[in-house]
Queue: 3 jobs
Job 1
Amino acid sequence: MPNQFDRRAFLKSLGAGITATALVGTTGCARELSQRPPNFVFFLIDDLGWVDTGVYGSTFYETPNIDRLASEGMRFTDAYAASPVCSPTRASIMTGKHPARLNITDWIGGSQRGELLPAEYEHQLAFEEVTIAEVLKEAGYSTGYFGKWHLGDTPFLPDSQGFDLNVGGTAAGQPASYFYPYKAEHGRSDFWDVPHLEDGRDGEYLTDRLTDEAIGFLEAQGDSPFLLYLSHYAVHTPIQSKGDLTEKYREKAESLPEPDGPDFISEHDRAFVKQHQDHAAYAGMVQSVDESIGRVLETIENLGLTDNTIVIFMSDNGGLTTIANRRSAPTAVLPLRAGKGWLYEGGIREPMIVKWPGVVEEGSLCSEPVISTDFFPTMLEMARIAQRPSLHQDGTSLVPLLRQEGRLDRNALYWHFPHYHGSGNRPSGAVRAGDYKLVEWFEDGQVELYNLADDIGESRDLSQSMPEKVGELTEMLHAWHRTVDARMPREDTVGS
C-alpha cells in the first residue's frame, strides 16, 4: 500500500501500467467501445434504509441524483442484503457466498451474549476466498476501494484482497468522526480513526473527501477498465452532518404537519422502532451521500465513460430504525417492519439500482427477489468473464432480469443470524419462497409466517392457520442449514 505522500503518483501509474493488459484476450491495438470490457462503479451505502431515498418513497430526504440514477437504470423492489448487519453482507458481495457458508454471520467485533451462547464466527475474510476484485484484476481491471471495509484488520485489508488501492478501509465499522482529521478525541483509542486521509483541511467532511479520492482514481484510468468500489461510511453512526445541511433539514422538520400516531412503537417488548422521518442531521448525511453519487456520475460523463460504465447502488443492511430500550433511532422505513439487526423486512430489504447503458431499459422496475450474493456472478457475466460456480456458490446472475429475458432459476432465499444485537433482535433464521416468508427464533423454536404480497409490513402471522406451509418452509430452512454447515447458537451450560 503506498503512503499518503505518493498516492496520486501511484494512481497515475495504475492508469499507465494497466492499459496494455486491459483488453485481455483480444488482438490489435483497439476495439470499438461496445467491445471493450465494461467499467464498474459500485456504490455501497452503510445502513441506508429501504425508504431513505426519494425514488423509494421518502418525502423528507432529498436525493435527486439517486432518483435520476433510478430513472436511467433498473430499480429493484425486492432486493435483499444477505444479513441484517454489515460485515456478513459485505463478505457476501465480495465472494458470492452466503455469510453462513463463510462463517461471517455477525458484524465483526459485535458479539453479545443472551439466553444462548451465540454462534462462533470468523473475524476476517479469509485469503482462501476469492473476491470479485481479484477476478476482475486477473482480467486486467484496475481496482480501487474507498471507504468502509470492516472485513478484517491487517493483513486482511482491501489491498490484500484484490484491490490495487485502499483509501480509508480498516477493521473499524464506523469512523471516529465525519470531520477532519477523522480521529478520536480526548486520548481515546485510535481504532476508529480513518487512515490515508492525513492531508485534509479543517471542516472537511468524510463523505466529500472519499468522493474526492474516488474521482482522482477515475481521472487516472485512461483507457483501462476499472472497478471503483465506493463504500461510504455514511449513513452509519455517529450521526453527523454538515452544519448548513443540518439547519436546512431542521427547518424542514419544523414545517412538517403533526404526524399521525406515535413517533416510536414497541417491537417484541424489547425495542423501540421509529415511525417518522424527521431527523435533521441524518437527512443531511443522506443528502451528502446523494451529492457524492452525483459528483462521481458527473465525472464519468465528463470523461466520456458513461456508455461503457455499469453503475450499481446498494445498501448493506436495513435502516437504523430499531434500538433496544431507547427511543433514539434516526430513521424510519415504513411500511416495513423493524430495521437493522432484524430479519423482518426492515432489516434486510434494500434499495438497489443497476444502470447498464445500452442493455437495461431506462426507468425499468424489477420485483423478483434478489440478494447480495448475486452481484459476483452478475458482474462476471457483464464483463464477459467465464462463470466460476465453485467460487460464487450462492449467487445467481441477474443478467436475465436486467435484459428482461426471463426469471431466475431459484426457489428460495435464506438468512442466518445466530446472534444477539443491540437492536433487540435475538438469534433467528428466515426463508423466503415465493410470496411466503418464515422466521424462526432459535431460543425456543417458535416460528412466524407471512405473505409478503398481502402483508409487506409482516403484521399478520399465518403460522397457526397454515401449518402445511410452515412445515414446508421449516424443512427447507433446516435442509439449507445442513447444506451450508451453518453454525448455530448453543445452550449456556455454565449459566450466567
Note: The first helix runs from residue 7 to 17.
Job 2
Amino acid sequence: MTDALALVRSFEPYLEFQSTLDYLKNPPPGYLLPPVDLLAGLSDIELKLLHGAYSNEWDFQTDISVLLQNAHDGHLQFTGDVRANGITVSRSRALVSLSEDGQQLPKVYDSSR
C-alpha cells in the first residue's frame, strides 16, 4: 500500500499545474461534459487505499486512469504498469483447433500444416 499511496500523492504536484482545474470542476453553462474535480478525485482514491477498499492493483490503477480520462484532455493520461500491454504475442500464421472425430477434445495446430 505504501507504493500505491506514493503513486497517488505524486500526481498532485503535476495536477496543480493543470490550467483547467477550476474550469473542469465548475464548467460554464452549455459545457457538454460533466464536471470533474481532479484533486478531490485523487483524495477519494487515497481514502479508498487507506481504508483497504481496493482488492487488486487493476481496480486501483483503473480508478486513476478513469479520473484523468474524465478531464477529456489528451495531456492527462495514466496507463499504469498493470493496464499496459507489457507482453504482446503475434503470429504470422493462424492457429486452428480440430477434433479428430467430432467427439474428442480438439487439438491445436498451426494452420500451415
Note: The CA atoms of residues 9 and 42 lie 8 Å apart.
Job 3
Amino acid sequence: MRTTLPSEIVIASIPGQCQIVGVVRHVKDFGLNGTSREQFYFSLEQVPFAFMTITVRPAADAASALQAVRDTVRDIDPGVPVFQVRPMSSWVNDSTVNDSTWRQRLGMVLFAVFSGVALVLASIGVYGVMAYSVAQQTQEIGIRLALGATRALIMRLVLRRALLLTVSGVAIGLAAALPLARLLGALLFQVWASDPAVLGAAVALLISTGALAGAIPALRAANTDPLLAIRNR
C-alpha cells in the first residue's frame, strides 16, 4: 500500500528574513504511526545547533560503514565526538530510544502466540473427532476390508472426512476474518491485512495441519483387522 506523503520545506535563512529554496519528501520524525507535522530545514551554517544527526545509506555492508563514518568525521574534525552510531533498524526496533513500533511488535508477538495455540487446539480437535469416528465405525471398516476394500481406500476415506472437516472450518474462519481484518490495520505498516499471499499461506497451513491430524486415525483404520473387528461386533 503506497501513500502520498506531505513535503517538507528547505529554507535559506538571511538576516531578518527567510527564503524557501526547495521542497523535499516528508520524513516521519515523530514515529511511524505519529501524525504528520510541519517541518523546516535550515542551513547549519546559518542556524547552528549543539549537536546533529547524520543519516548515511551505505552501498555495501552496514557494519563496515559504521567504522567508515567514524573515521570520516574524525578526519574532518578530531574534536567532534561521535556517539550512538548504529543501523537504522536498531533505532526503529529499540523500545528504549524509540517509542515507534514496540507496541505494534508486541501485539504481533501476542497474536502469533495465540495463533499457535489455536492451531494446536484445532489439530487436536480434528484428531479427536476423527479418532472417535474411526472407533465408532470399526465394525463397518472391518466389513469393508472383508468384502475386498483395500487399505489405501480406507485411508482415503478417513482422510477425505478429515479434509472436509478442515476445509469447512477454514471457510467459516475466512468469512469471519475478512471483515475483521481492518482491525489489524493499525498494527501494520504498508501491508494489507487481507494480503492474498498471507491468506493463501494461512489456508495452506491449516489444511496441511488438518490432513496431518487426520493421518493418524486414517492409518489406524487402514490397519484394522477385519476378523477382529467383526468378532467384536
Note: The longest strand covers residues 17-25.
